[in-house]
Description:
Strand order of the largest sheet: 3-2-1-4-5-6-7
Mean pLDDT: 95
Strand content: 15-25%
Bound molecules: nicotinamide-adenine-dinucleotide
Order of helices and strands: EHEHEHEHEHHEHHE
Organism: Sinomonas humi
CATH architecture: 3-Layer(aba) Sandwich
Keywords: Oxidoreductase
Low-confidence stretches: none
Helix content: 40-55%
Family: Belongs to the short-chain dehydrogenases/reductases (SDR) family.
Protein name: Short-chain dehydrogenase
Number of helices: 8
Distance between the termini: 36 Å
Radius of gyration: 17 Å
Number of strands: 7
GO molecular function, one term: oxidoreductase activity
Amino acid sequence: MSSTQRTAILTGATSDRGIGLATARRFAREGWGVVVLDLDGEKSAKVAQDIANEFNVPAFGHQIDVADEASVSAAEKAVAAEVATGHLPQVGAVANIAGITSPVPFLETDLALWNKVMAVNATGTYLVTKAFLPAMIEAGWGRIVNMSSVSAQRGGGVFGRVPYSSAKAAILGFTKALAREVAPTGVTVNAITPGAVDTNIRVGSTDEQEAAIARDIPVGRTATTEEIAAVITWLSSEDASYLTGTTVDINGGSHIH
Ligand SMILES: NC(=O)c1ccc[n+]([C@@H]2O[C@H](COP(=O)([O-])OP(=O)(O)OC[C@H]3O[C@@H](n4cnc5c(N)ncnc54)[C@H](O)[C@@H]3O)[C@@H](O)[C@H]2O)c1
């Protein structure tokens, strides 16, 4: 079955310079149907429409708060209705990209920040995966790609302090355990651990902080969103059939282990 007969679900895919939008466009360029899920429903619908127009693929946008079970369930039902009426091909991939950071020193964090960062990054990955996995198991084929971070592996810098690094590390454990459990079903589950990527999530950093980050990267620059999108779509391809439970580092050599 070619990807034109499959739909990729993406969370966190409307941010102008974000990894999610670049990945949605890359899936579309490769012929996938695309579902854009983000906090702002109107913006999600607009981004989906723009993608449909540009790439001539079926696309659908819907509101989601990945940390809220009812919201995730509503989004899943809306997608299932689009599939049932033939507006979208069957679900073949889920890219859990939505995330927020915690750029606060540990002793300045509070429980509310900890809970929020865990909820969006880790619980969101759990809820969205749980909602869309049954359709892929039923189809006997599926790809789940979870967004972790180099912060999970080496501790965070300015953006990846304790709550964020902890949540992104939880995603690695989630990925490995689920990969083993669903391997016989034809669904693969992998994680990626990008280093610094130039997106809006970094807004607020000083030039000095950015220069220090770039100095720490052997290739001498941060990643482009397209470089991350290319790995997510490849992990979602037929070619990646024997990778599951894997963590793919995309960090320009900044963390080699
Ligand atoms: N930029 C980096 O340096 C970097 C490095 C490693 C990992 N990441 C991860 O990549 C992912 C994408 O980040 P980005 O850099 O493109 O940032 P971004 O801020 O541009 O995009 C994040 C997206 O997630 C959405 N989002 C936030 N909370 C949400 C919620 N509760 N429900 C649904 N959507 C929600 C936002 O609206 C936005 O569209 C994040 O998980 C981030 O942690 C980023």
